Amino acid sequence: MALMGVVLLPLVAAFLCWVPPFRRAAWAISVVCLFLDLILALVVASQVIAHSYVTAIPRWVGADGLSALMLVLVSFVCAMAALFAGDYMHHNKAQAHRAWWFYCDSNLFAFALIATPAMSDPNLVWVGVELITLFAILLVAFERTATALEAAWKYAMLTMIGAPISLLGFLFLFWAYRSTGALAPETWLALSAHATSMPPALLRLAFLLVFVGFGAKVGLAPMHTWLPDAHSQAPSPACAVLSGVKTSVPLYAILRLLGILLASPTARMGYWMVVIGLLSVAIAAFLLLQVREYKRMFAYSTVEHMGIILTAAGLATRASDFGAVSQMLNHSITKSLCFYVAGTILITLETREIKSIRGLLRISPFEGVALLFCSLAIAGAPPFPIFLSEFSILGSGVQAGHPLVVTILATLIVIAFVGLMMHVNGMVFGKPVGPVTRVKIPLTCRLAIIGAALPVAVLGVYIPAPLYHLLNLAAQQLGGR
Amino acid sequence: MPSQMSAPEALNTLSAGFVLLSAFAMVATRQVQGVVRYFIVQSLLLSASCFLLGYAQHSMHLYALGAITIVAKVLVIPWVLKRTLARELYVRREIEQVFNIPASLLWALLLAIFSVVLVGPITSATPDRVVQINVPIGLAGVLIGAFSLMVRREAVPQLIGILAMENGAFFAGIAIAAELPLIAELTVAFNVILITVIIGLLTQDIKETIGTTETGTLRGLKEEPTSWR
What we know:
By secondary structure, chain A is mostly helical. Chain A contains 21 helices and two strands. In chain A, a hairpin with a 3-residue loop joins strand 1 (54-57) and strand 2. The mean pLDDT of chain A is 91. By secondary structure, chain B is mainly α. Chain B has one domain. Chain B has helices at residues 7-28, 32-57, 60-84, 87-90, 101-123, 129-151, 155-176, 182-210. The longest helix of chain B has 29 residues, at 182-210. Chains A and B meet through helix 5, helix 6, helix 7, helix 9 and helix 10 of A and helix 5, helix 6, helix 7 and helix 8 of B.
């Protein structure tokens, strides 16, 4: 019951935002519905922890550990982003009359993001991921400036070229499943039950096509070029969702399929995942060094983290899978925080350039501290949660006997750390350009930053037992041994 | 043992040939409207194959899929394109392409051969003639669509490129995943229509704000040494 609520509530919210008499209250509707959704997602997670699987509609809608983790992440980030949007959207006077449309589309986007992990049928996961892309295009184009439209167009073309390719992959997957002679409907559960009897060549081809198609949506190199454009041009609350969880949901589908593939001993693809993952981390790390806008900087950091998660999943051991799902959790909460901070800086100082922001601590102590906090957290400094998960991934790599992978990954993480902190150091400290005028930070922006910073601060030193259990359940779906 | 093909299967092979031909035609056409027309022809061929195979295999699913294809791709999508795009866009001729037409056709031919080579080992493992025909041609449709998406510079032909890729995937799909749940097929069709609406609106916005629909020339966000092409 709770699961259906989680899936349908954002759709209700989207509808309410669209109804003309309610358009003025679109923000309040979104916030209330999405926070309720977060509570329901936590209920679902507790049910999954207790029973390890929750079914809402047999055969179509259900959740296991990995799905429940995604549900909690997505609903948390969407709820905080909706809270953040309140004053942010007010700020943009030219678009204020269209703000209801932003909320309506954000809720549709949230619906697609939440529904995708809850689908038991792989083909519906494909549909869900496509819907995510479509609603995201509208969000990127929302401000209708020339650059926003250009970013939306590039995003649309580069990610949609993957849609039919991954569709073909899912059709091959269906064929592979049917050729085992199984008559039960195709679900993730049935697929993993028959993983060993599916023809390996067919399974490999299916995975390859899905990987190419969805990899473009995740932003894996060499298909990452749309990501910094789209994630810097969208309104900041949308950026938080785009960077925080929109990239993780297609990755979720890839990882699930990888889990099935790894169960079939002759169809191993782990090495390729490690190669592509490291390539993404490498490209992102070097581009981080020369980036000029701070929103793009955080966007490149997303490419880096997606690469790290893929590398960890490719190592395919129990420990590295645990690292991968923790990294997914930590990246989502930390990256969304980064974009709330970046968005607040953008509306108060009205510049996107790293160069023209100096001495933020003196202009606005709150923003300065927040930027320092979130940058250290996303770069992976101790005692933040990303440090813990990156460390456990590196440790699992050593254990599994891949010293080369660990060395390369560690080096690249350090390069990315240096690149990011170099820019942030200049922004936070240093001498302000021009006279110092204190800026006023809107209330909902402040609340969202504090709300998102809390789990980032806590999870680095203390992981609650239920969460640990959920992460373990999620890691089991990734097929490591 | 070359067994005799049944009449519907033979007709499906004929239709498959024309599907490939229409993919080539889309690559070779410069006028936007012409590209749309070839897309409609390709969709009609796809639904014809659905009906033929549905008849041969007594599959209600395939009949339904054929009907869905006609409604979504032959009726709704061209209508949506006409409604959202200004007439001037619709009858436009593309001046500039990355490759000229003979070179594009050569590339398309290479992609078709590549797809036969790629899936050959898999399809030859099954005795099913329909799979042997539809899967390579469907994959070729996907790849040629992707190719035309990359070399085109006008917004509408790029959109049609995506839709043609989708046609290719389905053409392979009717052979290998005929019993796909109907709800999945319906949502996929809905998704295709939504793609058309959203890209159509985006194209219109781009035309109003930037003043061109030659999306290949958009360069405002070029910062990094890597560009999107």
